[in-house]
């Protein structure tokens, strides 16, 4: 055998050995991940893990279809199982163009039959009314075209805070709650709620579900940040770049994150009745003027003292959908996370981490914030992980980028 032939044979043996190692490693990893997924998929809750008083808060806009098809029935069943003495339902509807009001009136009638304490506000004020109001106070911005427009996020923060007004009124009367359950317009079951409330054995600053509109891609990219404060590196499983978040997701365990919302959120009620109380907010208008924005559902975690003390967790066992088809697509868990999808997700995630350039975007945002803070000693923003390079304004039929 010539020297050249020997070298070729050696390279072939090395390549074959590396291929065998790669295949073996992948199969072993896939086996253990699938095993944990199977074990997690066998967990089904049909009752709360502990007795708690739950304040249920929801804001609604143009949600008639999901209310009638799933949401009303699920909420009715949930409060029935929790018991009228353990719940309060607060719903704020904000000027819908469809018949969301009619669907909520039907729900109100059903809850009344159960004796459920509640406050359901049906506001006649539409987006168009909000936009047409005089531009005064906070929440307005000058767009690049020179127009004064109403910002989306301060508006949403104000609406969410209105859904919490009964909480303070009740607290003044000595009526308090252990947890607040924030519900989006999602398809869910009482079992999903019970599992969410028991995240990390019920000890957390916040616990969130995973939400889906077009599976397998998760929906709420605006609010979700991993354990290091980074946006998800991909919209499919296992989502994250940080090791702690990825590892927990692979184990189907509560995933440590710095922020999440994702359709359904449980938070201890105490910070919301403290002095001063925790409130939803947007970033200052003067900072937003630099073409920056941050979700009110992310900033709430940045402001919550319990986020650091107890942690924020994404619970992969709780998956909700924005329609029935999306919910069905991620249940049961083995259908959602097939062996091929797990294998594909693990290696796609690795390759994306190798080529990750998100630090460039973060550097640009950081530079704008630094310049803003340098203008005034009162300029300070603690929710920097939430801020993205966008300008969002309210629109008659929703919101738009400018």
TrEMBL record:
Pfam families tied to this protein: CAP59_mtransfer
Protein name according to UniProt: Polysaccharide export protein
Keyword check for Transmembrane: yes
Membrane-spanning parts: 12-33
Organism: Penicillium olsonii
InterPro entries, A to Z: Mannosyltransferase_CMT1 (IPR021047)
Key words, A-Z: Membrane, Transmembrane, Transmembrane helix
């Amino acid at each position: 055998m010539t020297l050249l032939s020997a070298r070729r044979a050696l390279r072939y043996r090395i390549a074959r050995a590396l291929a065998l190692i790669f295949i073996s490693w992948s199969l072993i990893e896939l086996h253990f991940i699938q095993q944990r997924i199977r074990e997690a998929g066998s967990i089904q809750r049909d009752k709360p893990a502990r007795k708690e008083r739950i304040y249920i808060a929801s804001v609604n806009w143009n949600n008639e279809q999901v209310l009638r098809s799933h949401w009303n029935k699920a909420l009715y069943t949930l409060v029935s199982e929790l018991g009228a003495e353990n719940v309060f339902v607060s719903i704020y509807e904000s000027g819908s163009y469809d018949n969301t009001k009619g669907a909520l009136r039907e729900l109100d009638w059903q809850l009344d039959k159960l004796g459920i304490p509640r406050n359901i506000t049906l506001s006649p004020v539409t987006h168009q009314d909000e936009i047409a109001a005089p531009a005064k106070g906070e929440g307005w911005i000058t767009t690049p075209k020179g127009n004064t427009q109403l910002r989306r996020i301060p508006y949403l923060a104000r609406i969410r805070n209105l859904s919490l007004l009964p909480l303070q009124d009740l607290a003044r009367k000595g009526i308090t709650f252990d947890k607040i359950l924030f519900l989006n317009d999602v398809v869910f079951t009482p079992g999903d709620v019970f599992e969410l409330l028991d995240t990390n054995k019920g000890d957390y600053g916040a616990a969130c579900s995973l939400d889906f509109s077009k599976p397998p891609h998760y929906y709420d990219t605006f609010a979700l940040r991993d354990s290091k404060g980074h946006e998800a590196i991909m919209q499919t499983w296992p989502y994250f770049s940080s090791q702690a978040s990825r590892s927990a997701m692979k184990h189907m365990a509560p995933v440590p994150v710095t922020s999440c919302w994702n359709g359904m959120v449980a938070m201890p009620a105490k910070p919301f009745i403290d002095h001063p109380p925790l409130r939803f907010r947007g970033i200052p208008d003067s900072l937003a003027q630099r073409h920056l924005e941050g979700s009110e559902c992310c900033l709430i975690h940045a402001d919550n003292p319990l986020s650091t003390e107890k942690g924020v967790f994404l619970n992969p066992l709780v998956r909700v959908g924005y329609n029935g088809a999306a919910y069905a697509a991620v249940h049961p868990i083995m259908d959602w996370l097939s062996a091929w999808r797990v294998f594909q997700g693990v290696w796609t995630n690795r390759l994306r981490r190798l080529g990750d350039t998100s630090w460039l975007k973060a550097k640009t945002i950081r530079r704008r914030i630094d310049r803003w803070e340098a203008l005034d000693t009162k300029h300070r923003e603690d929710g920097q992980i939430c801020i993205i390079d966008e300008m969002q304004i309210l629109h008659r039929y929703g919101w738009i980028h400018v």
